[in-house]
Design a protein that fits this description.
Ubiquitin-like (UB roll); 2 domains; OBG-type G domain-containing protein; ATP binding
């Protein structure tokens, strides 16, 4: 008798499941959060030179750049619809926010509502732009935000522990199935609390699937993926040199190894955005970039933020439109089809799949099919980033 196949448990991801995920812009007051938000989203949120200029969170979305979509658009010459990343501008945090300082409780609740974080840190010196602590010290700023998020998580976890400790103690070593489940959950929450109190972010822990289930049931701030954005002067951005970047990178490597750091210039990006919003022709924008000798950091920032949320996109292409559809990485064809319409997913039979590189090499669908590169996949197959798909369902050839 052949040995039984070992069943590999599918790893559950931290975070809220879904495709409509949001990333929040977080940092101290006056570090350039609203300037960043306005430039990247072409918005007009007030970005004045005083703390707490932003109170209520502002929301907008930006197209996720993808050269593959651009190429498909030239092939099919139809309407182009990109994938989008939703960005939230959140008011600045200050030391003591976890205890309510600087409207801290409200602002921290805004962070709990997003799925990922763009952490903006000030890395420029300008006497005309006030700093909430009267000095530019990126490491101190990083520590402040890091500590406040951990303190809020600690308070939330302690609240759960305090509310349940007595009942768990009364249960003793026996109890019903439900009692055992509650004791297990209590032990997990205690383990998470101890991890955070030790100075760690939840997202950096090596958790089991059961532990991830418990974490995902709590709106823990340090469980969210973080991309660090250093706001440098235009001069430093163009010359690719800034005295603060090495110490910022060192802090990230020591405290949250693996997290990404991207420098940008709020001044540079604002000027570029103003030119684009004003209807500047492509030639004028290109001239501006050539004169500055630099390119926008936003495509890299948007793409990385999208990836940090564990998102990817697949394509549908036809005479009407070429569209990028957002889904979570690792989902099956059925769930990908659900991004388009529930009825397609519920009656899905099979999927025609073209790999982007195969289509680009072939030059057309007809040539790709002639080369035997059209793949037929079942509804339980995993969809991959960049797949160009035709969903066949009981509704007919549902989406092209």
């Amino acid at each position: 008798m052949p040995p039984k196949k070992q069943v590999v448990e599918e790893k559950i991801q931290l975070g809220r499941p879904g495709n409509n995920l949001k990333i929040g812009v977080v940092g101290l007051p006056n570090v350039g959060k609203s300037t960043f938000f306005n430039a990247i989203t072409s918005s007009s949120v007030p970005a004045e030179n005083y703390p707490f200029c932003t109170i209520e969170p502002e929301e907008s979305r930006v197209a996720v750049p993808d050269e593959r979509l651009d190429w498909l658009f030239t092939l099919y010459t139809s309407k182009k619809v990109p994938a989008y990343l939703t960005i939230i501008d959140i008011a600045g945090l200050v030391k003591g926010a976890a205890e309510g300082q600087g409207l801290g409780n409200a602002f921290l609740s805004h962070i709990s509502a997003v799925d990922g974080i763009f952490h903006v840190v000030r890395a420029f010196v300008d006497p005309d732009v006030v700093h909430v602590n009267d000095e530019v010290d990126p490491v101190s700023d990083l520590e402040t935000i890091h500590n406040e998020l951990r303190l809020k998580d600690t308070a939330m976890l302690n609240k759960y522990i305090d509310a349940n400790a007595r009942n768990i103690e009364r249960m003793g070593s026996g109890g019903t199935v439900d009692d055992k489940k509650r004791k297990e959950e209590f032990a997990i929450v205690t383990k998470i609390r101890d991890w955070v109190v030790a100075g760690n972010d939840v997202r950096k822990g090596n958790w089991t699937n059961r532990e991830v289930d418990v974490i995902n049931a709590q709106p823990l701030l340090t469980s969210k993926p973080v991309t660090y954005l250093a706001n440098v002067s235009e001069k430093d951005y163009i010359r690719k040199k800034n005295k603060f970047l090495p110490v910022i990178k060192k802090w990230i490597d020591e405290n949250n190894p693996g997290d990404k750091l991207i420098p940008f210039s709020g001044v540079f990006e604002t000027a570029l955005a103003a030119l684009s919003v004003a209807g500047g022709e492509a030639a004028a924008v290109a001239k501006f970039l050539e004169e500055k000798g630099a390119a926008s950091a936003f495509p890299k920032i948007i793409t990385l933020g999208y990836d940090q949320l564990n998102l990817m996109h697949f394509f549908t292409a036809g005479e009407v439109e070429v569209r990028a559809w957002t889904c979570r990485k690792g989902v099956k064809m059925t769930e990908a089809a659900r991004c388009i319409h529930n009825d397609i997913a519920d009656s899905l039979i099979q999927v025609d799949v073209m790999k982007f590189d195969d289509l680009k090499t072939a030059g057309s669908e007809a040539e790709l099919k002639a080369a035997g590169k059209l793949h037929i996949r079942g509804k339980d197959a995993i969809i991959e980033d960049g797949d160009i798909v035709y969903f066949r369902s009981g509704m007919g050839r549902a989406k092209k």
